[in-house]
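> forwarded from #structure-qc
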């Protein structure tokens, strides 16, 4: 695998990580409501989830999907169901008040990491995307250390970008705006998550 091909994969994945989706929405919300620490832990979970999908693509999960379409269908429905469940929780609790000047209490480290991981794994689209990217750029016989480097790039792209999103939304002006508009913001995020759930179920 040439250096140019490696950099192409890195840039293509970064563009995919930046595009709005469940992971970016969750990073923004956790940064907004619970602060940077929880946001970074969620981002790390998202990064590990990205590595799982990238590794699956590198080692042939797309072939399995083609041979057993029902498996992809089941993953899509399961992922969509998880996003619907999160959307319902946001919508249901949208009117619960927050004491002025305070954010929600941050969840534990493992809980935050797990939230990021499951948010990323709930969307099987990255496996298909990675398969398309790797198909034209990663030749057979590529050394295993290159695979490891690709997975590291995926982890860093996902983690650093989503940490940056959480950081932006963790600033006090953003959090004050959230407290004053909590009901509207939570219901908007719930709607976006539900829309993404429908898109995952239907793609």
């Amino acid at each position: 695998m040439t250096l140019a091909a490696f950099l192409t994969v890195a840039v293509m994945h970064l563009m995919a990580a930046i595009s709005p989706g469940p992971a970016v929405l969750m990073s923004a919300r956790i940064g907004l409501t619970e602060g940077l620490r929880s946001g970074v832990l969620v981002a790390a979970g998202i990064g590990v989830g990205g590595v799982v999908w990238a590794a699956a693509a590198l080692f042939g999960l797309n072939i399995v999907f083609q041979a057993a379409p029902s498996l992809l269908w089941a993953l899509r429905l399961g992922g969509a169901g998880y996003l619907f469940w999160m959307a319902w929780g946001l919508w249901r609790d949208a009117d619960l008040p927050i004491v002025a000047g305070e954010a929600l209490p941050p969840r534990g480290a493992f809980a935050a990491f797990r939230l990021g991981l499951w948010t990323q794994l709930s969307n099987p689209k990255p496996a298909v995307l990675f398969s398309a990217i790797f198909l034209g750029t990663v030749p057979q016989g590529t050394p295993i250390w290159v695979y490891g480097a690709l997975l590291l790039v995926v982890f860093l792209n996902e983690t650093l970008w989503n940490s940056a999103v959480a950081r932006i939304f963790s600033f006090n002006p953003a959090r004050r705006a959230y407290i004053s508009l909590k009901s509207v913001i939570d219901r908007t995020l719930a709607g976006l998550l539900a829309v993404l759930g429908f898109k995952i179920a239907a793609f």
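QC bot note: The mean pLDDT is 80. Residues 31 and 37 are 8 Å apart (CA to CA).
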